């Protein structure tokens, strides 16, 4: 990776899609950084000091100054490391940039909660209901893909960009849910364009290099389930 512009650290958690999103942006830019894994079951002093408002990861620390929230961090990375030798993450056109930001917010406000609802369901009936709700949200992403890609390979056109990172960082969790529950969130029969995009994203350089293995997510999900079961039993 390229030499970093100042001291750069990333506080994260390997199974957080939001952290993965930032790592993908840094990878696209060829930026080197120090990664510091966090335990959200036992939050350390560093995380609490650098992100006292939300107390969450990711936190990017550039020359001692923290930047929080993944979409804000990705935009920061794109602006700071804007050399001609590295690819732009956000579109150059103001309208396209605004549209990409709109759909990225949709991913975090609607798509992420939809699949998290499947993961947190306690019964098969509840999980089926949540899967149906997620399917409706995913259909809207199919529309976004058609609108933003103009028939090209990725949301951003010919190469991976801002909205691809926003959606793609969730894929390893969707793969984990398919393994754990047999639930397919991005269904080729229902959203063929999005399913084809997901395959291309997984095979892209950033997908291969940064996306965690689905088994890591599944293992963490089982840890969460055991933690909740223990907490419920102690009440």
Describe the SSE topology.
Blueprint: E1 8-12, H1 17-29, E2 34-37, H2 45-50, E3 59-62, E4 65-68, H3 70-80, H4 94-120, H5 124-149, H6 162-168, H7 171-181, H8 192-203, H9 205-210, H10 214-233
Could you name the key traits of this structure?
alpha+beta, 4 strands, Glutaredoxin, 10 helices, Glutathione S-transferase Yfyf (Class Pi), Chain A, domain 2, 2 domains, 235 residues
Description:
The chain is α+β, with helices and mostly antiparallel strands and 235 residues long. The chain has two domains: 8-80, Glutaredoxin, CATH 3.40.30.10; 94-219, Glutathione S-transferase Yfyf (Class Pi), Chain A, domain 2. It has helices at 17-29, 45-50, 70-80, 94-120, 124-149, 162-168, 171-181, 192-203, 205-210, 214-233; strands at 8-12, 34-37, 59-62, 65-68. It has a four-stranded mixed sheet, with helices on one face. Helix 4 (94-120) packs antiparallel against helix 5 (124-149) and helix 7 crosses helix 10 (214-233). It is globular, with a radius of gyration of 18 Å. The protein starts with 7 loop residues before the first strand and ends with a helix. The mean pLDDT is 95.
Computed CA radius of gyration, to the nearest angstrom: 18 Å
| CATH hierarchy, class of the largest domain | Mainly Alpha
The proportion of residues in beta strands is: 5-15%
Shape: globular
Order of helices and strands: EHEHEEHHHHHHHH
Name the helicity range. Answer: 55-70%
Task: Specify the CATH architecture of the largest domain.
Answer: Up-down Bundle
Task: State the oligomer.
Answer: single chain
Strand order of the largest sheet: 2-1-3-4
- Kindly state the number of beta strands: 4
What is the fold-level CATH name, i.e. the topology of the largest domain?
Answer: Glutathione S-transferase Yfyf (Class Pi), Chain A, domain 2
Report the end-to-end length measured between terminal Cα atoms: 50 Å
Return residue spans where pLDDT drops below 50 for at least 5 consecutive residues: none
Largest sheet: 4 strands, mixed
Let me know the average pLDDT. Answer: 95
What is the SS-derived class?
alpha+beta
Tally of separate domains:
2
